[in-house]
């Protein structure tokens, strides 16, 4: 399977279960792998034969600005669902990390893999 990857996508959003987490936006980092439904783009050299990763990032930014998430798990499910159902990917791996949330810990988060 051919895969597109997006590393270290940064978003600032309100996320968390504690009152102090909902006071100001937090920076989160996404690392995403997207399975392609076929490998035609390698032969055709046409963006119509692949998944436009710029459109994926734009759509993620748009949808997370419209919603509030309590948990990184829910955000990861949202992103994976969007990639599978709006962009037609057969498989997606989404890793989401909150940066600097715990003293002495660089990042905390979750990795999920989902299939259509």
How do the strands and helices of this protein lay out in sequence?
Elements: E1 3-13, E2 26-35, H1 40-44, H2 53-66, H3 72-86, E3 91-102, E4 105-115
Antiparallel strand pairs: 1-2, 2-3, 3-4
Short description:
The chain is of the alpha+beta class.
Structure description:
This protein is of the alpha+beta class. The chain has a single domain, classed as GTP Cyclohydrolase I, domain 2, CATH 3.30.1130. Helices cover 29% and strands 38% of the residues. The protein is built from three helices and four strands, in the order ββαααββ. It has a four-stranded antiparallel sheet with strand order 1-2-3-4, with helices on one face. It is elongated, with a radius of gyration of 15 Å. It starts with a strand and ends with a strand. The model has no long low-confidence stretch (mean pLDDT 93).
Q: Structural class of the secondary elements? A: alpha+beta
- Number of folding domains? 1
Mean pLDDT: 93
Percent of residues in β-strands: 35-45%
How can the largest sheet be summarized?
Answer: 4 strands, antiparallel
Shape-level CATH architecture: 2-Layer Sandwich
Ends: how far apart? Answer: 14 Å
CATH topology-level name = GTP Cyclohydrolase I, domain 2
- The rounded Rg comes to 15 Å
Q: What is the approximate shape?
A: elongated
What are the segments in which pLDDT stays under 50 over at least 5 consecutive residues? none
Number of strands: 4
Q: Enumerate how many helices there are, as a single number.
A: 3
